[in-house]
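Budget justification, computational time. The allocation requested in the original proposal was used primarily to generate structure tokens for proteins on the priority list. As evidence of use, we reproduce two of the resulting records. The first is shown immediately below.
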Amino acid sequence: MKRTTFWVLTTVGIVIFGFLIVQLFSLYIYGVKSSVRVEDNFLPSYMSEDSISYDPYQREIGSTQDSATYNDDEGSKVQKTGSINFLVRDLDSAVDNVQVVNVKYSGVVTNIYDYGRGNDRTVQLTVKVPVKGFEEYYEELRKLDGEVTYANIDTNDLTEQYIDITSRLENLKSVEGQLVGILKDASSVQDILAVQKELNTVRGDIESYEAQKRYFDNQTDYSYVSLTFNIDKEGLNISDKPWKPLGEFRVALNALVYILKGIVNVGVWVLVFSPIILIPVGIVLYITKRKSK
């Protein structure tokens, strides 16, 4: 009976001790991960040395027009966008080939995103091209050297929104003309101020709708094509990264120091929480000794 009680109490003590060790280790690991996460997020992604992003051309805003214009013979305003992914042997040559096609169809590169190194390098381009030649331009791009892994065209009919904005703009300009006439005939200061306030509100709305109209013109008079280039198997470099034994030694040494710090930190945690661990162990030993007597 005494031996059974001893083993039960010992088992309980070991379970409690193991549970506390696991909890301490979990807390320590969580603290390490949290600190690493904060350090990793200290720099924004666009400042990482593996990515280079620049915008050599700014998007042009369509000119203001007094009457609605449409981008096809059916009298509709349709937004067209496309995307193509390529696997190519040489990324720089592929970008040069795109520029040749751009000259033919009046395409303008609005964004270039070049990131990664060696075999992991990727180049992404966004090209703006007049909507009238969009289909021909898109098909010629697909014929470029390389393997097309993905191709897609999206269309979005904006005709109703465009007609609504154009109608509202015309009505507001009509109201503006009426308010200007009333302002000329106003005699009292109170009437002038009231009309002027309403006129400012109407003109603000006019500017807002004109900006929306310019946006729709720009989105439907031009199409945007997104191109992504990656290196295929034929273009892979056998050794795209130089061997740096000294650097590897420093990395290994840093890992060793990191592990030693972790061991010391775990020891500190165990030392701090040792009273909590020793109390149940002491109780078990005390009860065991009394039972043995």
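The second record produced under the same allocation is shown here.
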Amino acid sequence: MILMERKTIYKLAGAIAALAVISVPALGMAGGKDLMYHLQNRGDLGPLNRSDIAYLQAEAPAPTSMDGTINASDWASTYPYIVTTWQDNNKNSYVTDYLEQDPYLTNIYEGYGFAKDYGSARGHEYTLTDVAKTQRPHPMANCLTCKTPNFAKLVNDQGIAVYKMDFNEVLGMMEENISCYTCHGNEPGNGGMLTVTHSYVRKALGDSMSSIDPANLACGQCHIEYYFTPEDKETMMPYHDVAGMSPEAILAYYDSFDFADWTQEATGTKMLKAQHPEFETVLQGKHAGLLNCADCHMPIEQAEDGTVYHSHLLVSPLENETLLSTCVSCHGDTDMVNMVHRIQDRVTARETEIGNRLSELKDTLAAAVASGNFSEEELDAVRRLHREAQWFFDYDYVENSEGAHNSELAMSCLDTAEAKINEAMALLGRE
């Protein structure tokens, strides 16, 4: 394998802490908002603010991994609470079989891997296990992009030719699930430093990275909509700034070079498969100017010895009183759990309705193709609407918050999908 010039790693000061201790005065946090955490009164500490926290000035340990990444176990003696809580992500082991839960998915994904195997993601401790055993085809190594820091390191060291390597060959080289290197590189995280380790983020966003909260960028390396470039099979983001992150703009991006994930055999439609656009959905919503991913999924905790740190057990704010308490500055005494569950129930019910209608459109279009009663021009007009309807439906369905991140966008996507389904059915004589 030809070694290529190592790519510079873009470093960011950000909002996810490595390990923190109380000091007076504190260093505070670079990046993010100075948001009050309404924690329980912890003795003389009282409510904690980011300005109460100072980050350790640590030195990086020697790496023990074969590829030179510093793994979680290497950091354990420096950041024991961080590593322990990160390892606790193995508690998130339950998987929902979406094909069993929503049978219409098998039909609308017909001809693509997600019709064979589609389950909810488990904790980050299972990424390599799950990608190895999935029934979805993965001939190339690009399917490992966000499953392990060792793959990002390999790309940074050897260039984008890595993406086209054989999946099983590269899988055998991987040593660790998503871990410290993914968000911090081999840096010690001093000052809350974050590191974007995936080269495609820098390629896609360029200078616009500076306008995005670093904590969002760290998570947004992977919790995104992406595609594999036709030429190099490189993982890539379909936009260049926040303005381009709407589902309409991303669809236009794909349309500009006639990109499709697959052509559905029964309908002839050039289909798109949305991934998991949490990053884009959040940044298009009202919470983006107030909160970042860490604010809502990584509570500030205090150990018995007085150490204050960001827990790296990634949790739903609905299941953590500390995180829920950050909502009070805007929502007051609203029952947040009940409110969010109502949103999710409404979105999920609408998904079921539109998903079944999309399945009906697929069958109706397939029958029209088989009948020979429609011209290719007529069928192409319906195929265009089919492609768009499924894109907007899927963009909402695969975003993992069920509307909690941005309920307005979720409902807008489903409404747009319905309108396009109705237009397509009308063209097929099925109003």
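A brief technical remark on that second record: Residues 1-46 have pLDDT under 50 and may be disordered.
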